[in-house]
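Design request, tokens follow.
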């Protein structure tokens, strides 16, 4: 028969990885990747260092897990945005904002944002690529819907929905940095909005001509 103490222990065991990741996110934001130790993460999570090793091999493993968690939340938000109503420009903007705009909001307050982006690229390339493919499929579905609805004419530009999705994503990624520094979130969103406007206009289906009156 399971006792109340045993049940509490099971709940703590289930929540331990989530607590560690939340604590690690706080530590990485506060101190950057290089200065953070496993002892700091354990202290922030309220567990022993030995308890960390029950779920994670090392600091790199924790950082990759944090990155995966951020990507997963962004992907879920993007999928929700893809299902909303509105003009195609609005839907594209909502999907891109879920993936990139909110990410910048999350990390921009950290004084170590450049270091965190550098470590993400160094340690989490495979994680980022996996989620990039998922995100491209999500955006492609938005563009396919818009083409079926007659909002876009991708073939006129020699593109299919997959090509167009990559064009939007790669262009939005290209706006991440302003010189050597990451973009301010508000400025990033304004620039992405302009980008979407230009690309969507270029891919828009021509308006039907009105019949002339005799």
């Amino acid at each position: 028969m399971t006792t109340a103490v045993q049940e509490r222990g099971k709940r703590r065991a289930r929540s331990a990885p989530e607590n560690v990741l939340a604590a690690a996110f706080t530590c990485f934001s506060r101190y950057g990747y290089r200065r953070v130790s496993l002892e700091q993460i354990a202290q922030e999570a309220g567990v022993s260092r030995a308890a960390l090793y029950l779920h994670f091999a090392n600091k790199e493993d924790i950082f990759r897990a944090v990155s995966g968690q951020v990507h997963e939340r962004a992907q879920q938000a993007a999928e929700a945005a893809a299902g909303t109503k509105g003009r195609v420009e609005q839907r594209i903007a909502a999907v891109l904002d879920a993936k990139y705009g909110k990410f910048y909001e999350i990390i921009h307050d950290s004084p170590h944002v450049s270091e965190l982006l550098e470590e993400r690229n160094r340690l989490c390339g495979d994680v980022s690529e996996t989620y990039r493919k998922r995100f491209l499929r999500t955006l492609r579905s938005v563009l396919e819907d818009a083409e079926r609805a007659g909002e876009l004419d991708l073939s006129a530009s020699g593109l299919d929905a997959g090509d167009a999705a990559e064009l939007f994503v790669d262009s939005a990624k290209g706006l991440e940095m302003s010189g050597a520094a990451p973009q301010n979130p508000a400025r990033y969103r304004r620039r992405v909005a302009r980008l979407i406007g230009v690309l969507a206009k270029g891919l828009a289906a021509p308006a039907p001509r009105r019949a002339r009156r005799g």
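Comment from the thread starter after seeing the answer: thanks! The chain has two domains: 1-56, 67-203.
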